[in-house]
Amino acid sequence: MPKVKTSKEEVLKKVIPVLRQRGVCQSSMSELAKACGIQKSHFYYYFSNKEQLIKEVLMTVNSYFEYNLFKTIKNPKVSIDEKLKNIYALIDKMFKTFEGGCIMANTALETIHLNPTYKGEIQGFFKNFISGLQLLLEPNYTKQQSAILAEQIVQDIEGGILLMRIYDDQKYLNNAISRMEKIILLKP
Known about the structure:
Oligomer: single chain
Number of helices: 9
Order of helices and strands: HHHHHHHHH
């Protein structure tokens, strides 16, 4: 019998891996409830519907990523090499450790053409990712160059995540990260 008591944060934490693997459309509320060890009706205590649940999952992922990315980037006591090392660790945790890749890109690919309900949360995630990298680039590039390069880096990383999943080989994401390092550190 599923347990009855759980917090909203625990529910979100347990739902995220399921959504990474199965996606939004292939994850029923019953399956998500089972993964959380709660009854389906308990979801409705926290979330009025599946769309609200997914939005809160995306907001949670975005908040976690944004906090950790900017905590690293804006720390004046940390060298650029250490910042890059911390960003690699964050990327590893977000995209390599968990099966399924990038939940934002997955959700966008799966839902954006059917229903743009999650578009704002997804755009917010990528906007934060780009603006964070832009801050790292600005000491060596103009503001405009930094913006263009940051977008290219995020596109490269997301492509690396996709190819990593398709070929089951982390070299694609590792190569994208290596290219990011060269751009940020001005290495040929």
